[in-house]
Amino acid sequence: MRLAVVAYIVPFVLVYQPALVMQGSVHEIVVVQKVHDEVSKYQLYNLDTEVLLQWASSAEDGTELTLHFAGDLQGGEYVLVVPSSGMFGGESLNYFRVL
């Protein structure tokens, strides 16, 4: 299963509704953007353990950047930090929960 993140900016909207995924069901994250940044700038944090997870590998194909992590994600809250190439730069925070 792929967890896809479409990076876009919606001004003045703050929504925290994390996606729910089952443990062992996601093995990669796909970021869809017009332009991708360096892979090291896409950061995945486990919010429960406050650990930054490392990417095992990555692949770029057009507008898709596929990020593979080593092993399965443990249950808990996560945030994927995606650099933004918009007019104001910055980053978007994408929350999800592994059950």
Structure characterization notes:
The chain contains no helices and nine strands. It is mainly β and 99 residues long. It has one domain: Sandwich (Immunoglobulin-like), CATH 2.60.40.1220. It is globular. Residues 6-13 have low confidence and may be disordered.
- Helix content range: under 10%
As a whole number of angstroms, the C-alpha radius of gyration is: 13 Å
What is the second-level CATH architecture? Sandwich
Largest sheet: 5 strands, mixed
Number of strands: 9
Overall, the morphology is: globular
What fold name goes in the CATH topology slot? Immunoglobulin-like
> Strand sequence of the main sheet, in spatial order?
2-9-8-4-5
| Helix-strand category | mainly beta
Q: Report how far the terminal alpha carbons are from each other.
A: 15 Å
Indicate the CATH class. Mainly Beta
Instruction: Estimate the strand proportion.
Output: over 45%
Uncertain segments of ≥5 residues (pLDDT<50)?
6-13
- SSE ordering: EEEEEEEEE
| Count of discrete domains | 1
Which properties best describe this structure?
99 residues; mainly beta; Immunoglobulin-like; five-stranded mixed β-sheet
Describe the secondary structure blueprint for this structure.
Layout (H helix, E strand, L loop, with lengths): L1 E5 L12 E3 L6 E5 L10 E4 L4 E3 L1 E7 L2 E6 L6 E8 L7 E8 L1
Parallel strand pairs: 1-3, 2-9
Antiparallel strand pairs: 3-7, 4-5, 4-8, 6-7, 8-9
In brief:
It contains no helices and 9 strands.
